[in-house]
Amino acid sequence: MNQAILTVPHQVLRRKSAPIEQITPEIRAHIHNLMDTIQYAHDPEGVGLSFPQIGLNLRGFVTFLDKRLKVYLNPVILDASKETTLGGTPDHPTLEGCLSIPWLYGPVPRPKKIKIQAIDERGVEITKTLSSFPARLFLHEYDHLEGVLFTDYTLKNNLPLYFLDRDQDKFVPIQDPSSVIKW
């Protein structure tokens, strides 16, 4: 079932999520809701969605890359490279966005490579190394489970923030991000 996606300043988005003790029929239903919701997210579209974003204080998220869904329950970051990147190129870093903060985008420093562990929707343990955009996506969704939003990095690191002007299809810099980020 397609769920409503919570937006800032909803309090659930700032809570640390609780571990999933076991994959019950109720948890399976929540996973399917999360999967449906990300697939039907439009205006804007998304590539990841966490349980907190649909109002559930549970440690899990889905990613939707290349039309492939992946489920990560109780994810753990086992290792992360010390070297960080804003993605893209120095002149054009990757701009992260969030379905819970629609139409705002900004660069976020992230480790270049991570080793992760999680459980999938069948209860099978996953251990893999991610780099590039998949690592960035995993870390963005993992942050949601910790109550962290990408805009926290904007303020902490004095980074730019942009609004996507859909009429002109261009990013417009926000002169004072702290005037917009109050959650």
UniProtKB/TrEMBL annotation:
The protein's role, per its UniProt record: Removes the formyl group from the N-terminal Met of newly synthesized proteins. Requires at least a dipeptide for an efficient rate of reaction. N-terminal L-methionine is a prerequisite for activity but the enzyme has broad specificity at other positions.
GO MF annotations, alphabetized: metal ion binding; peptide deformylase activity
UniProt protein name: Peptide deformylase
Coiled-coil intervals, chain numbering: none
Keywords: Hydrolase, Iron, Metal-binding, Protein biosynthesis
Gene3D superfamilies, alphabetized: Peptide deformylase
GO biological process, one term: translation
Catalytic reaction(s) noted: N-terminal N-formyl-L-methionyl-[peptide] + H2O = N-terminal L-methionyl-[peptide] + formate
Binding site for Fe cation: 98, 140, 144
Domain of life, per lineage: Bacteria
Pfam families: Pep_deformylase (PF01327)
Transmembrane segments: none
